[in-house]
Design a protein that fits this description.
Blueprint lengths: L10 E7 L5 H14 L4 E6 L9 E3 L5 E3 L1 E3 L2 H7 L5 E4 L9 H10 L3 E7 L11 H7 L2 E5 L1 E2 L6 E2 L1 E4 L15 E4 L31
Parallel strand pairs: 1-7, 1-8, 2-5, 2-6, 6-7
Antiparallel strand pairs: 3-4, 9-10, 11-12
Helix pairs in contact: 2-3
The structure holds adenosine-5'-diphosphate, magnesium ion and zinc ion.
Adenosine-5'-diphosphate (ADP) binds next to α1 and β9.
Length: about 210
């Protein structure tokens, strides 16, 4: 269903969930299928997210797809060209009015697929993903595996760093946690639960 692009008909898909829930993998899967269907597809990612690669979109499982790094929503509009399918990874880090640009692209007949965190490490809605979920025809919410107990996880636990909302990092800074195992940060925003059970690897974590 989602791969049939009727000419002149656009729509919005949102893929959301906590870190490690497979959002980027799912975005890559949908874009590959669009290309198999011979649809012109382009992928954007925020230039802030250079965890694995400056240009490619890369999942935690090392699947990758070439992308265009951008800073603002306006950059996406300018660089989308005639692409029929437009993917955006880590959309919560794109600056500017992404909702308006996404609406405009879908209204002009494009299929727009957005992947992003629906909540931040405090468990609060992470704009503009909630607004984009309301705009979308199709919403997929994924869960990860809780790093502590193995249950389905829908929360991101920050296990290091400070209290800034945007702190790009991988397994050295974040874990997926279920409702029971997630520990809310302190009132000042300091991450709780610094202890780690899972000893993953990641590149350098980058403070922003
Ligand atoms: P997201 O974009 O949602 O952060 P990715 O698509 O980049 O997630 O990565 C998903 C992959 O991460 C999984 O297929 C798996 O290989 C790996 N992974 C590592 N830790 C976990 C975890 N706790 N739960 C689920 N997948 C994990
Ligand atoms: Mg991702
Ligand atoms: Zn758990």
């Amino acid at each position: 269903m989602l791969n049939v692009v009727e000419r002149g008909r656009g729509w919005v898909e949102v893929i959301c969930g906590c870190m490690f829930s497979g959002k980027t993998e799912e975005l890559i899967r949908r874009l590959r299928r669009a290309r198999i269907a011979q649809q012109a597809a382009v992928v954007f990612k925020p230039s802030i997210d250079d965890r694995y690669d400056v240009e490619d979109v890369v999942s935690h499982s090392e699947q990758r797809i070439p992308s265009i790094p951008v800073k603002t929503a306006r950059d996406i509009q300018e660089k989308a060209g005639d692409a029929q399918v437009i993917g955006i990874d880590e959309a919560q880090f794109i600056e500017g009015d992404l909702l308006t640009i996404v609406r405009r692209l879908a209204d002009s007949g494009r299929r727009v697929i957005i992947a992003g965190l629906d909540t931040d490490y405090r468990g609060e809605p992470f704009e503009p993903i909630p607004q984009l979920m309301c705009e979308a025809e199709f919403v997929t919410k994924l869960t990860a595996v809780c790093h502590k107990c193995g249950a389905p996880a829908h929360r991101t636990q920050r296990i290091g760093g400070g209290s800034e909302r945007v702190l790009v990092g991988g397994q050295a800074l974040y874990e997926a946690r279920c409702r029971q195992c997630w520990e809310p940060p302190t009132k000042t925003g300091e991450p709780a639960g610094q202890g780690r059970l899972f000893n993953g690897t990641s590149g350098e974590d980058k403070k922003l």
